[in-house]
Design goal:
The structure is a homotetramer of 198-residue chains. The first copy, chain A, is an alpha+beta fold and 198 residues long. The first copy, chain A, has four helices and six strands, in the order H-E-H-H-E-H-E-E-E-E. Chain A is globular and about 55 Å long. At the C-D interface, strand 1, helix 2, strand 3 and strand 4 of C face strand 2, helix 2, strand 4 and strand 5 of D.
Amino acid sequence: MNLRPLAAASALACAFAVLAAPAHAHNHAAAAGGGARVVSTAITEAEVLAAQRAWGDALVAIATAHEREGAAAARRLAEQVIDAAYGYQFGAVLFKPTLTVAPQTFRTTRAGALAYFVGGDPNFPNDSGFALNGWRSVAIQNAAIFIAGDVASTMGNVTLTDRNGRATTVDKTWKFKKDDHGRLRIVVHHSSLPHAPR
Amino acid sequence: MNLRPLAAASALACAFAVLAAPAHAHNHAAAAGGGARVVSTAITEAEVLAAQRAWGDALVAIATAHEREGAAAARRLAEQVIDAAYGYQFGAVLFKPTLTVAPQTFRTTRAGALAYFVGGDPNFPNDSGFALNGWRSVAIQNAAIFIAGDVASTMGNVTLTDRNGRATTVDKTWKFKKDDHGRLRIVVHHSSLPHAPR
Amino acid sequence: MNLRPLAAASALACAFAVLAAPAHAHNHAAAAGGGARVVSTAITEAEVLAAQRAWGDALVAIATAHEREGAAAARRLAEQVIDAAYGYQFGAVLFKPTLTVAPQTFRTTRAGALAYFVGGDPNFPNDSGFALNGWRSVAIQNAAIFIAGDVASTMGNVTLTDRNGRATTVDKTWKFKKDDHGRLRIVVHHSSLPHAPR
Amino acid sequence: MNLRPLAAASALACAFAVLAAPAHAHNHAAAAGGGARVVSTAITEAEVLAAQRAWGDALVAIATAHEREGAAAARRLAEQVIDAAYGYQFGAVLFKPTLTVAPQTFRTTRAGALAYFVGGDPNFPNDSGFALNGWRSVAIQNAAIFIAGDVASTMGNVTLTDRNGRATTVDKTWKFKKDDHGRLRIVVHHSSLPHAPR
């Protein structure tokens, strides 16, 4: 069976559906606030966990699109993921991917993030496309979460498993910010391989 | 039966117990974050409603202490309430009480708030002590609540009923900020009598 | 001389130009952060004062458009002002205008705000259009400002002067929130006539 | 010359003096807000850079105290630094030091941080004391800074140089939160050696 681009896009839409919950849900306070309209930009733990899962699902979706649809489809999907899940439109994202090296370690621009995920950008010659490595599943184990109002940081291990069953575990820090539409966006992302003492 | 000061203080402690929930409760995330420690400074709707009720209970407690224990006890209690429920230690509170007039309309200092609640301060000669008017109950009807991360604003009607059953309804706006200990503190308080067109 | 609608709109654009400064200005840190890109959603005192002035200028612009262009032009301008300067798109605004009465005291919806400013809405039969009263100038005297990160509250007196030189002073509380584009939007607005003891 | 413990403590006090600026400085707005009291919990870029420098100065101070005063003095100083500059009192800090390994990679508790800096804790047997490596200077090169109201994140390179002139550069992410007293505290700290492709 062959997934068509539309299907791949649908998978992505599904992965990010969880991020689409509007910030201005109209809750109804029972006791003192019967009927009061409630707007909240505060982030809940459930929203944080959903945003993490959406990132993992998106990575797998890009890898899958690459295998089934080719490089162009993977690139389109990666662009959608970056535009939906990262906060480059705020002006910059503090992104230190796992495998980048100086002088291009930090990818504060959208172009730098896209190059890391799918490669093919002559301005980032060391990038071969991290998302194209046949990822099949992503497991997240948080050590701690710090929610500071409308931003939330997480730190812990993320384990990526490829189609050959090979697992890679990284130490990862994310910070999410809730945007005006109630969606969590990644504004800080620091990923590193575990320290290996000699 | 006569409530002693200690009992009055206990009533107050009870009224504010709800505010004492620490911000750094150690929740345990089940799904993705099994065992993750979660710190949150975000404010929930339930915390907002509890802080409003605590304000009402405190007003009744001051009125009651005044009748049963006298002016000194009421003053001590009012100081405790201000120190526990307002944010004067942040540098200023934006407080426009219901009945103040120019040039002392705005009570941005602790002394101005205390004078408004219990009077007796020669620097605020128009203040006779709003909290000493025999209040017996406080009902809060929110029109809307806006939670912006670690601060939350409410707007609506507050109806105060005194020992003779006479009710006074005011239009009231509050803004609460969660402090480092997880307690909500009033940093904005604008109260006004309903507009009476001639 | 007669101002055409376009000119009135230009006046408004001018009034709000100050709000259009993007949040993601790329500052350049000298010392430790040479060349670092800086994104900030924090609000400065200068931004607060500019947003207050823009509100006053907009009120005068609506009054002026009404006199020169008529009701329809004033209404169009009021809609632009509400959409540019208030935060109804977040889900609700906590708005208690100076002259509203129960059961329509609180204008948590855009329609309620528009009716207050320009009248003409059968759903708000008591509204005659507050912005249409010939306002010529607005002076703001803050008692205190509380900036809590990306939201900021102000409290103080606002004095409106009409074309006959008659001044009206109100007690006013605003809360502004910086949106994703770096503009301050009013999310709380409580205005009341000074208390008049009998 | 021999620095006594008191002198070392003074050096630390100096290093952190920059953090002691109260949040509730009473600014005086000139234009519209003449005389208005201004409270702000927003973080400025200058405060971020100062907090980073204070961290570097503190690391050097601990290393110096260790050489001149011994292990006990270094430990006391490290405790003061952690209590003054980190946010463990909020409930947890998301701290991934440069050299830790599983299953003790993440140091979400004060004890785990202290063990990393000065070692000597049987519960953290792999820790030999990172701060005791003869550090003489710390240089910080930010790639980007994201200030989200009363929290601020930085990402970039930090270069530590020891008494033999040997430099170590790490990729580092910090998140600072302004506490109720106006001091920036580290609530996220992810440090990693640069990726070394084989």
